Amino acid sequence: MANPQATRAAKPAYAPPPIDGDFYRIATVLNESERALVKRVREFTEGVVAPVIEEFWGRDEFPFAIIPKMAEIGIGGVGYQGYGAAGGNWLLNGFVAMELARVDSSVATFWGVHTGLSAGSIYLCGGEAQKQRWLPAMMRFEKIGSFGLTEPLVGSATSGGMLTTCRREGDVWILNGQKKWIGNATFADINVIWAREEGSNQVKGFVVAKDNPGFSVEKIKTKMALRVVQNGLITLKDCRVPEADRLQNANTFKDTAKVLRMTRTGVAWFAVGCQMGAYEHALRYVTERQQFGRPIGGFQLVQDLLVRMLGNVTATQAMMLRLGQLQDEGVMLDEHASLAKAFCTVKCRETVGYARELLGGNGILLENHIGRFVADAEAIYSYEGTREMNTLIVGKSITGLSAFV
């Protein structure tokens, strides 16, 4: 007689569904060529960045070998028109930002500082000759840029309390002061520096070369977040900059604010990408981690946290999708960008915290990725305008009353 145990069908091995942080399929709004660019970005991040990023993050160093490969995929100046830029629209720029941050927020920040803040300052505030002079090389990543606004004693109050000064002497400007937390500053070729003019108190923008004798930079060490980003403390001591290197259309802080408005949306996209990556790593972990003879992804409390994470990711993706559309329609206001930056970074903090919780003690190991996402979320939460400052911008818009002191 046949043994019923032997003839019973074997239980199929567990095969988890594909892991995809785009639950509502927002990428389907992109056209074929746009999706092809996003695909190239994903291939770059997963094939070039992911294999080395933990090592460089741990060493507090930048993987310079990735720069030529980043240039090859064509993401210099997404959303800009002309000057060798990638072109496209701001929604596509956001998808690129999200894809970069999905694997590493430091690499995303390097790209955002270079093609957003630095090149963006020249794109929005430079004269035509200046754009032709600097932007093509920046779009090819042959010349790398930094953006010097924040100071050691002045962060959120730079609009009215900037301490770095400039004064004109003939065809030369003399700059004095310091800038702190300046990404890419330790190696950037093109440093955009913002300074307050003595007398008029109006903010001006300048391009300062790294070999200018009045320009020096010291690397900021012992950071707990965005360790791959090379932040510098810039010192300007009687730094002489020719009038030809003053951004010709940067005459007040309102011009600086145009750049910040444009790039603040990118930071919100970084927050979406950061939590998207943390969610995907956590989901992969719980389908592989075994306890009591089965994957922990089958436990109720684990699934509860996963769905909370997915809800945050999807909500912020939907918000940014609409914000990108508003930006492309030319109707995005400061308060729109500020709400997104404030909301998305708060949700990012929450989501990466859930991911850390799901991994338990393993969540603090670099090899499991989540610890890096948790740490980097703290920097995203603060830079390009704190939650509090962005809240007051939105609050003024919806009440008609300013709460700024």
From TrEMBL:
Domain Acyl-CoA oxidase/dehydrogenase middle: 146-239
SUPFAM superfamilies found in the cross-reference section: Acyl-CoA dehydrogenase C-terminal domain-like (SSF47203), Acyl-CoA dehydrogenase NM domain-like (SSF56645)
Keywords: FAD, Flavoprotein, Oxidoreductase
Signal peptide: none
Acyl-CoA dehydrogenase/oxidase N-terminal domain span: 32-141
Annotated EC: 1.3.99.-
Domain Acyl-CoA dehydrogenase/oxidase C-terminal intervals: 257-398
InterPro entries, alphabetized: ACX4-like, Acyl-CoA_DH_CS, Acyl-CoA_Oxase/DH_mid-dom, Acyl-CoA_Oxase/DH_mid-dom_sf, AcylCo_DH-like_C, AcylCo_DH/oxidase_C, AcylCoA_DH/ox_N, AcylCoA_DH/ox_N_sf
GO molecular function term, any single one: acyl-CoA dehydrogenase activity
Cofactor(s) this protein requires: FAD
BP GO terms, sorted: fatty acid beta-oxidation
Similarity annotation: Belongs to the acyl-CoA dehydrogenase family.
Stated name of the protein: Acyl-CoA dehydrogenase
